[in-house]
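<instruction>
Derive structure tokens from the sequence
<data>
Labelled lines for chain and fold:
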Amino acid sequence: MKYISAFILFVFSVMNFGYSQKIEIGQVAPDIAQVNPEGEEVKLSDLRGQMVLIDFWASWCVPCRRETPHLVKAYRKYNEIEFENGNGFTIFSVTLDTKLERWIDAIDNDEMEWPYHVTDSQGWRNKAAIEYNVRSIPASFLVDGDGVIVAINLRGDDLSNELKKHKQGRIKGLFQKN
């Protein structure tokens, strides 16, 4: 019996090998450096000063594709808005796709017009997904202008509602200006 328990513990250890600690609200987002569809390296850290949604997704992921219209709507509405801690809003999309053509087609078909789409073509072994401990997609992390994570896994209108909370000039308290 003790050998079976040891074996089970070993298997779980191996399954979790390579995964980082849990990413939490309030910590600085680990940097991501991967290539865009043109093969050029793009870094998350280059977007400091903006509100950024790090979005882990894939073209083959049905829930991801259903979430995309909400991302497009939020991007169009908040792209040029001033925030308490960030100038403008953008999305840094990290795909778990391994097929370049499918990835590019999904970006075009879903009108994902933001300029930051990256991959390392490793699928579930994507280095950023491992570092962010992504175990299912879609997964997202909202980062403020200082690179600090302020929200995790916003879905639907929750993204727009969270961005609204961080708008510059918002009156706090009982009387809120939307």
The beta strands are 33-35, 41-43, 51-57, 82-83, 86-87, 89-95, 116-118, 139-143, 149-152. The mean pLDDT is 87.
